[in-house]
Amino acid sequence: IPSAIAFESGEYGLSKSIKEFFSKIAYLIKDLPYTLTVEGHTDNVPIFSEKYESNWELSSARSLEVVHYFTELGIPGNRLIASAYGETRPLEPNDTIEGKQRNRRVELLITLEPEDVKNLMSTDER
Length: 126
Hints:
The protein is 44% helix and 18% strand.
């Protein structure tokens, strides 16, 4: 999810539109045996802020904000993981505006254990 959609520049508060999107995701996964990992990422432009010493802190604040919002939506905390990578896992080189935009993001990873997938598939076959 591009950070421009989810957050104000250099901030971690969620936009109204992304909250609506996350509400839909929570509804879709609520009955599945999943783990939801929220990964925060930034570009390599140093942040100059009193709130954050580095992009790592910003990416951490953003991933935690998303995790907190999912708990408000009723997702159990034991199913949520917040991860922060700062600028260390770019999708694109940071030498263009477009590359930097792609690198500023939050990724949601929904993980199911193989046994749970088998159980879900066998339930659907009935």
